[in-house]
Amino acid sequence: MPKKNFMEAIIEALTQVPILTETANECAAMPKTNHTFENKGIKRRNCAGCYNKLRATLNSKDAQRKTKKIKSYCAECNKGYCAKCFYENHL
């Protein structure tokens, strides 16, 4: 049994909630986004995703100070994102 199926079986048994899996047909029906990850930014920005995560627990001044400074951004949204946060928010 593959590890993924084993873990899903354990989670279903403990929570009594079925895990929904996506099929190829469902994925094809989802609209594609035109968001592109640009790594050519001129100015350093705060990562919007990291800032929002830190903002949940810190005040705005501390969150802004601790947020990653990056040059990459989403060309469509015009927001700065590190690679991890871009893929979490756009895929």
Automatic annotation (TrEMBL):
Name of the featured protein: PiggyBac transposable element-derived protein 4 C-terminal zinc-ribbon domain-containing protein
Organism classification: Eukaryota, Metazoa, Ecdysozoa, Arthropoda, Hexapoda
